[in-house]
């Protein structure tokens, strides 16, 4: 099976040999680190290590993609935000917001795609495309609204929607301009799939009305800049904004287990959307801590309900058992026997 053609067919609503088994969201588990000869935090900073870790779950568990990077802080760091890269026990975390005296001073840094760790990501894509040309490469990036939250602080951003909504629009526009530059860099290195993760747009943080007014327009503009296939991922119970996720121009909409595949399909059909459904095997419970037979049962249910691209529901917890990722792929294969 040609993994790249199979994934591209699935993301374009075409017939596939098997539903692809990938991870659209961050995918790195500690049990795979020794085999990949990597460690954190160096795999966040070194393109060779990032590539080796990005391909590790393909080589060790059979996932049908390579996926880089492993966090959503690189773009904020490129703006000057302080990031703690953590260690083997934790992924990078944001420690401070963008350094500016007035929001009106905020602007995209010159040569944005070459700031901070961003060129490490693009170089890791080039390495993966050269060394594993048969494996689709998925790159993750923050959505404009999420990046705006990193720059201002999520609480301040949400508060400002009620008091200074024009300022929010301006900051989201700056974030969009930056992410558009980054997309162009990803286009240039020939990435197969771009996954935009926009957790701050989740209905658990942002009202659906504010999503449609402030987050969705930027997501639409960002999708227009992409040459590659694309996936939009939003965390939590995204059903109240599923209409927007399915009509923002992305190839796929990735959602968590809080959203039933059949309910998402109803909205897709009602909207006449070509965006396919991606997900939604629980990362916080099933892949993280349940036995392999329960992993397989959940995968089978998702396939029976007609998921178009099989994927974890969100970023894979680093301490998830490698055996559960292997079972994830095995269950997909067994479904077709």
Output the keywords.
TIM Barrel; 7-stranded parallel sheet; two-stranded antiparallel ribbon; alpha/beta; 337 residues
Strand content: 5-15%
Sheet with most strands: 7 strands, parallel
For this structure, what is the CATH class? Alpha Beta
Give me the count of strands.
9
Distance between the termini: 15 Å
What is the number of domains? 1
Sequence of strands across the biggest β-sheet: 1-4-5-6-7-8-9
Average pLDDT number:
95
CATH 2nd-level architecture: Alpha-Beta Barrel
Find the CATH topology. TIM Barrel
Q: Overall 3D geometry?
A: globular
> Regions with pLDDT < 50 over 5+ consecutive residues?
none
**What is the H/E string?**
HHHHEHEEHEHHHEHEHEHEHHEH
Class inferred from helices and paired strands: alpha/beta
User: What is the count of DSSP helices, taking H or I runs of 4+ residues?
Assistant: 15
- Report helical residue fraction: 40-55%
Roughly how many Å is the radius of gyration?
Answer: 19 Å
Briefly say what this structure is.
The protein has helices at residues 3-11, 33-36, 42-45, 47-61, 74-78, 118-131, 144-152, 154-163, 165-188, 208-224, 242-245, 261-271, 286-289, 292-304, 322-335; strands at 66-68, 83-84, 93-94, 137-142, 193-197, 229-233, 252-255, 276-281, 309-312.
What does this structure look like?
The structure is a single chain. The longest helix is centred in the middle third of the chain and has 24 residues. Helix 4 crosses helix 6 and helix 7 packs across helix 8. The chain has one domain: TIM Barrel (Alpha-Beta Barrel), CATH 3.20.20.210. The chain is globular, with a radius of gyration of 19 Å. It has a seven-stranded parallel sheet with strand order 1-4-5-6-7-8-9. With 337 residues, the chain is α/β, with parallel strands linked by helices. Strand 6, helix 11 and strand 7 form a beta-alpha-beta unit. It has 15 helices and nine strands. The mean pLDDT is 95.
